[in-house]
Structure formats: structure tokens, C-alpha cells
Amino acid sequence: MVSGVQLQLKSSLVSLRQKEENFFGDHSFRFVFYKLFKNNHNFAFQFLVSGNNLKNSQYLNYIGGLSEVRGYRDGQFYDQTFYQSNIEHRFDLYHHSWGVIQAVVFTDQAKEAQTLAKITESKDEILLSSGIGLRFISPKIFRFVGRLDYAQTHTRFVDQNISFGIQQFF
Asked: CA 46 to CA 31: how far, in whole Å?
């Protein structure tokens, strides 16, 4: 459980030897806020915007699944640019010297389009999901966080999914 703020800016430019494109540009902005409250309650918020200038499928941003919008399938949605935000509230259910079991309530949002301007103009609904989960954290194993999430989607393709992951905060 942590408190703090993280701001991350990434920018990559790669020269390509292609007739159509002279360079590959990939840019992202990520803001993360964590707040530890009394009685081991932890609030976390993440906002990420990412985009690039290539239309080839291997360079697109694929969203959905455990690390972006829980409840949707991995890579179910894709385009050159996207934004996402995640909000989580965690609290301890069980605390022992070998580890902690936490409950989590969360909501995830995202939207994809060719450019940032087209995201705001798009008539597509945002991807929206919410759910509950468990976290298994062991101080005996460096940086170990196991997670099990159940998410319900609310827009586009309404579905439910269970996700399992290791070593990821969101």
C-alpha cells in the first residue's frame, strides 16, 4: 500500500525506410495517484493517453483485458490513439506476516480512435466497466501482487469476465 503521485511522459521517434512514412512516432502521457487512508484503505487513480502515427496492425494500441479495461477481452478494441482511466479502492480483509489479502472495488474507462481529436468527436460510447476483486500481496516475495478480478462491462458489448494476473497494480 502506497501514497504518492507519478507522472510519466514518453516519446519515441524512429526513422523508417518506407515510401509512405518517414518516421514512426509514439507518444504517451500517464498520471497515477495513490493515497493511503486510515485502517489500510488505499485509493488509486490512473489516467493514460497514448498514440502513434502508423496504421499497420502491429503498431496499433490494443485495449481491453486485465491491464486496461477489465471485463472486455484482451485487445478487443484497437486504434492509433486511446485514453483510459482506472479508479480503485482497496482495503485489507486479512493481514498476516506471510501476506495480505485485500478486497478491491474498481471502475475502468477507455476510448479509442485514430487521433486524439477524433476521440472527442467520435459518437462511439466509451468503454466502461466496474467490478470487484481480491489482491494477494506477500512481503516475503519481492514485489509479488496476485490479483483476481470480476468485471461487468456497461457499454458496447455487455459481458462479464474474470481476470487473473500477477505483478500489476491496476
From this structure: 6
User: In order of start, what are the domains of the chain with their CATH numbers?
Assistant: 4-166 (2.40.160.50)
Helices (H), 49-108: none
Nearest to 47 by CA among 9, 80, 20: 9
Quote the mean pLDDT of the chain.
Answer: 86
DSSP state of 73: P
In a 3-state reduction of DSSP, which class is residue 143? Answer: coil
Residue 131 has a CB neighbour count (10 Å cut-off) of 20
Tell me what pLDDT residue 19 has.
56
The residues, ordered by sequence, that sit 6+ positions from 141 with a Cβ below 8 Å of its Cβ are none
